[in-house]
């Protein structure tokens, strides 16, 4: 009997932590750090921790209460040069740009926002990407990506030119 209760408890523990499919996209739009906004849902790929991903510079998993703001704070805590933060379930990804590999099974491609329809782990009613987009050329997970609008806007960049010779 104790073993049966243990198995039942283990099954409940697994289902309690699985991402819920909300059926549509509910990104975090308020309570974000200043200058940050939801950019959209982007394709990603399986089986790579960093590198060849839509956001591949830094990755953290096991976030117990993931959200747009939580992921942004993680990225900014690692490096203020990260202007993109993306989440999927209990994972957070950071980078200075959105990578796109320009191949059939593309990553870094803007998708319809409703592809990001799985609830963030530990945050009720907010979506954090999805685990699988189905069959066809757009296989694999999707990321809900947030952008630091001030840092990513080239209109806010300054160019400082120095002459190479004195005139």
Write a concise synopsis of the structure shown.
By secondary structure, the protein is an alpha+beta fold.
Sum up the structure in keywords.
167 residues; signal; six-stranded antiparallel beta sheet; WSC domain-containing protein; 3 helices; alpha+beta; WSC_carb-bd; globular
Explain this structure to me?
It contains three helices and six strands. It has helices at 2-17, 68-78, 149-152; strands at 36-43, 58-60, 84-88, 91-95, 110-111, 142-148. It has 167 residues and is an alpha+beta fold. It has one domain. The chain has a six-stranded antiparallel beta sheet. The model is unreliable at 1-17 and 156-164 (pLDDT under 50). It comes from Massarina eburnea CBS 473.64. Residues 1-18 form the signal peptide. Residues 35-140 form the WSC domain.
Q: How many whole angstroms does the radius of gyration measure? A: 19 Å
Please give the share of residues in helix.
Answer: 10-25%
Largest sheet: 6 strands, antiparallel
Total domain modules: 1
- Indicate the mean pLDDT: 78
Strand order of the largest sheet: 2-4-3-6-1-5
InterPro entries: WSC_carb-bd (IPR002889)
Protein name: WSC domain-containing protein
Signal peptide: 1-18
Pfam families: WSC (PF01822)
Q: What topology emerges from the helices and strands here?
A:
Layout: H1 2-17, E1 36-43, E2 58-60, H2 68-78, E3 84-88, E4 91-95, E5 110-111, E6 142-148, H3 149-152
Antiparallel strand pairs: 1-5, 1-6, 2-4, 3-4, 3-6
